[in-house]
Amino acid sequence: MFSNGASNFEYDVAWDMDEFWVFGYGSLMWNPGFAFEERRPARAFGFRRSLCVWSYVHRGTPEHPGLVLGLDRGGSCRGVAFRVSEENREDVLDYLRRRELVTNVYKEKILPVSLGEGRQVRAVGYIVDRQHVQYAGALGIEDAAEIVRTSSGQSGPNDAYVFNTLSHLKEMGIRDLWLEGVGVSVSARLQAAV
């Protein structure tokens, strides 16, 4: 158990991992914020990238929440795996916990990950807690697009978050058809509103 103030987090992190890898599926891919030895294309199995987390601050408000990415159950997700040196393991975990576990909407887990050449590793990843109040569930493309189009928070409009994510994924050669569908629908709605 890891204690953070009044909250307790239960982690599924195996401390006997031969190598320490971190899996990123959203902004962690292009803005990790920690030192790493190696960065590799990777795929996590059993989870998919999804706009499934209500944002009450950065991309929405409590009265009109926006949507941000979570790693939800089902399918697979292309992303990036970072290999972290043994001497940086504790510092990186501390940093990731401060970054990812602010509201406890994510759970820290060890994920089975396949690196680009097919090598299998285990990596620390952050999956959405389906029991958390911020879990938006599995939304359809059109429902997600309407929320994204009409939401804004302290970090700016929700549509800018989605378009920025799609731009980075494209630069990295990663296709996410569902998220691309949301982007197309948001663009069409924005053009129709002009």
**Low-confidence stretches at least 5 residues in length (pLDDT < 50)?**
1-16
- Cα gyration radius (Å): 17 Å
Number of strands: 9
Major sheet: order of its strands?
Answer: 3-5-4-6-7
Secondary-structure element pattern, one letter each: EEEHEEHEEHEEHH
Strand content: 35-45%
Tally of distinct domains: 1
* CATH H-tier superfamily: Gamma-glutamyl cyclotransferase-like
Spatial gap, N to C terminus: 52 Å
Average predicted local confidence, pLDDT: 90
What is the CATH level 1 assignment?
Alpha Beta
Second-tier CATH architecture: Roll
Assembly category: single chain
Organism: Xaviernesmea oryzae
Protein name: glutathione-specific gamma-glutamylcyclotransferase
GO molecular function: glutathione specific gamma-glutamylcyclotransferase activity
InterPro entries: ChaC, GGCT-like, GGCT-like_sf
In short:
The protein is of the alpha+beta class and 194 residues long.
Structural commentary:
- Strand 1 and strand 2 form a beta hairpin.
- This protein has five helices and nine strands, in the order βββαββαββαββαα.
- Helix 3 packs across helix 5 (177-192) and helix 4 crosses helix 5.
- It has helices spanning 27-30, 89-100, 141-150, 158-171, 177-192; strands at residues 2-4, 7-9, 20-24, 38-55, 66-84, 106-115, 120-128, 152-153, 156-157.
- Mean pLDDT is 90; it is low at 1-16.
- The radius of gyration is 17 Å and the shape is globular.
- The protein has one domain (2-138): Gamma-glutamyl cyclotransferase-like (Hypothetical upf0131 protein ytfp), CATH 3.10.490.
- The strands form three sheets. It has a five-stranded mixed β-barrel. A two-stranded antiparallel sheet has the order 1-2. Strands 8-9 form a two-stranded antiparallel ribbon.
